[in-house]
Recover the amino acids of this structure.
């Protein structure tokens, strides 16, 4: 069912329950985001996409990437309160990640700069969870996850050991908005790619992608051959 | 940990993903910590991604991925206990056992933990060993309390 909502004075129709960022897209209004990606389920961790919503006479700030649209909703994407809150969010992210160009640019655009808060330990990860969700939802591997909590929360492989399921596709490198997962070639094993993030490394293939000589692969081929042979013999 | 024991726990929880915390609690009740192979096995059996399990295991302070001692000493360092001298008690426990907070003795007998409020401020400073609460603890009493658990374990 479609519902009409008013966004910055424009009336647009979107699916009921769809995130209100869809309405903004339809109306051609830009909303800054960090943890949102069309291919993934909404997550709502960065809060940068907040907008003001009036619903049932109540006015409040909500994250537009995961707040469901409903009948009679009025949305404001650029009020003083919204701008002020976004500025604060970027400022805080910048405290955590002072060296990330994207955040520096964002801060500049929003008219804020070096923060009055102290950096505890410079980090490049904003914990948006894009890499984790992409690896799980799109690649279907789930090699990385989030671990620990509070100020210690981080992206990590299980037990912080080289992952045995990562396929080295590099999607996480590609999708990371701050560029903190790097794909590096390993000098010792030239065909092996490692993905490095701080001191956690993902070493995908133990045999440098030499499938023809790989023990695991040979076993697999044998199995396949056997299955095909069985299938044929049955058919006759 | 015995595979059969793990299987029994999983069965009790009907292999539900939503029961992962309960499953881990049961494992920890038996082993005092969450062994890596056990978590890997659970991940296989439940068909639940290991990253998810690792997330939960590291999120809650109640879970430990390293072996803990048979007895856990929790020294409350909340506001009331702090004012009543919790720091000195903690010092004394650490000195007596020759380990620091969040560590375990070599013989796996004791682990020390600090907690931030046990909700028993009237009893400050509080020290809890396993399930036993000790109120108004003074550094001088620590040795006596610990020796009770030492001798109990020998029995
Ligand atoms: S490179 Fe590995 S960790 Fe990254 S998305 Fe691909 S499978 Fe997942
Ligand atoms: S590594 Fe990058 S994509 Fe992953 S959570 Fe951190 S900032 Fe986001
Ligand atoms: S984009 Fe909506 S919370 Fe991050």
């Amino acid at each position: 069912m479609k519902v009409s909502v008013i966004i910055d004075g424009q009336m647009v129709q979107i699916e009921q329950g769809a995130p209100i960022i869809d309405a903004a897209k339809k109306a051609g209004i830009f909303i800054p985001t960090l943890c949102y990606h069309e291919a993934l389920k909404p997550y709502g961790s960065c809060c940068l996409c907040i907008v003001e919503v009036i619903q049932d006479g109540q006015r409040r700030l909500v994250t537009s990437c995961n707040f469901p649209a409903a009948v009679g909703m009025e949305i404001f994407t650029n009020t003083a309160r919204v701008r002020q809150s976004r500025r604060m969010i970027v400022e805080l992210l910048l405290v955590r990640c002072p060296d990330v160009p994207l955040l520096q640019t964002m801060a500049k655009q929003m008219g804020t700069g070096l923060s009055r808060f102290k950096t505890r330990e410079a980090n490049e990860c904003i914990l948006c969870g894009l890499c984790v969700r992409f690896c799980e939802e799109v690649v279907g591997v789930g090699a990385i996850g989030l671990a620990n909590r509070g100020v210690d929360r981080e992206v990590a492989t299980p037990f912080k050991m080289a992952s045995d399921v990562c396929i080295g596709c590099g999607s996480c490198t590609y999708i990371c908005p701050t560029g903190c997962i790097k794909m590096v070639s390993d000098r010792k094993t030239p065909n092996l790619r490692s993905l490095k993030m701080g001191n956690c490394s993902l070493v995908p293939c133990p045999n440098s992608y030499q499938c023809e000589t790989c023990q695991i692969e040979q076993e697999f081929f044998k199995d396949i051959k056997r299955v095909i042979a069985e299938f044929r013999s049955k058919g006759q | 940990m015995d595979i059969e024991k793990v299987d029994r726990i999983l069965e009790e929880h009907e292999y539900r993903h939503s029961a992962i915390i309960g499953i881990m609690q049961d494992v920890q009740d038996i082993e005092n910590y969450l062994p890596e192979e056990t978590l890997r096995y659970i991940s296989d059996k439940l068909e639940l991604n290991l990253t998810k399990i690792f997330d939960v295991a590291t999120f809650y302070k109640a879970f430990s991925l390293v072996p803990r001692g048979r007895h856990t000493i929790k020294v409350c360092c909340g506001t009331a206990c702090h004012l009543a001298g919790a720091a000195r008690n903690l010092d004394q426990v650490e000195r007596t056992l020759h380990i620091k907070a969040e560590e375990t003795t070599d013989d796996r007998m004791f682990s020390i933990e600090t907690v931030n409020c046990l909700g028993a401020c009237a009893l400050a400073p509080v020290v809890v060993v396993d399930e036993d609460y000790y109120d108004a603890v003074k550094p001088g009493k620590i040795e006596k309390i610990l020796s009770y658990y030492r001798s109990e374990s020998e029995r």
In short: The CA atoms of residues 98 and 105 of chain B lie 8 Å apart. The radius of gyration of chain B is 18 Å.
